[in-house]
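The instructor's notes for this session suggest beginning with a concrete chain rather than abstract definitions. Hand out the sequence below and ask the class to guess, before any prediction is shown, which regions might be ordered.
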Amino acid sequence: MTPQKDEMSFLDHLEELRWHLIRSTIAVLIVAVLAFIYKDYVFAIIFGPKEGDFFTYRMFCKLGQLFDYESVFCSQELPFTLQNRTMAGQFSAHIWTSIWTGVVIAFPYILYELWKFISPGLYENERKLASGFILIASALFFLGILFGYYLIAPLSISFLGSYTVSDEVINQIDLSSYVSIVRSSVISCGLVFELPIVVYFLTKLGLLTPSFMRKYRRHALVIILIVSAIITPPDVTSQIIVTIPILILYEVSIFISKYVIKKEEKRKKSEL
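After discussion, reveal the predicted structure:
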C-alpha cells in the first residue's frame, strides 16, 4: 500500500469513493444523452428480435432444415404487436432505455473507476493487473450481452410472444413489457458471464477454494439450472442453451481459483 492511502481517514475514503461514483455517473449520463438523441438506432437494435427475419430465427430455421425438421422459427412474422397504453409510456421507455444503454456502454469505465478506488489497497504486482482486469471483465460482460441479445432475448420473445391459451386471445404486448424482457435477458447474461471475475476476487480474499468448488459442483449445477430457469422462458431448449455456457464458466472459474491459490503460495514462499 502507498503511505498516502494508509494515512487517509475513513471520511477521506468516503470522499474519494464519492468522486469515483460521480465520474462514473457522468460517463453513464453522457452515453445516455447520446442514446436519447439517436433513439432510432437504439430502438432498431431493441426491436430486432421482434422481426421474423432476425439472425437467430434464420439460424434456427436453417438448422431445422438441415435435419429435415419444420422449425417454428421459419415464420417470417411473429404473431404479436406492440402497443402503448399510458400517456407517458413511450417517453418513459425512451428515458430508461437511454440510461441502461449508458450503463452498458460505459461499463468498462465504471470498472476503471472501481479499480482506481480499490487498487491502492493491493500489492504492487496486483496493481499491475489493472489493465488486464478491466479488459477481461469488459470482454466477459459484452460477451454475455451478445449471448443474451442473440440467444436468450429472441428465444424468450418468440416463446412468450407466440404463446396462446386460446385463439380468442390476441397478443398485443405492452411496450414496457417488451423492453423489460430484452433488458433483463441481456443485462442478466452480461452479469452472469462475470462469474470468473467474482471467483478470482473471492479466492484472493480467501473465501473460495478450488476444492470447495469441486466438492459442491452438484449443488452449483442446481443453482445454475435455477438461474437458467429465471432468465429464460419455461422451455427445456432455452434452459439447456443457457446452462451450457454457465457450466463452462464454472469449470473455467475452478482453474482460475486454482491459479490464484498457486500464485499466493509462491508469493508467501518468496517472502519467507
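Then share the key points. The beta strands are 81-83, 172-174. The chain has a mean pLDDT of 83.
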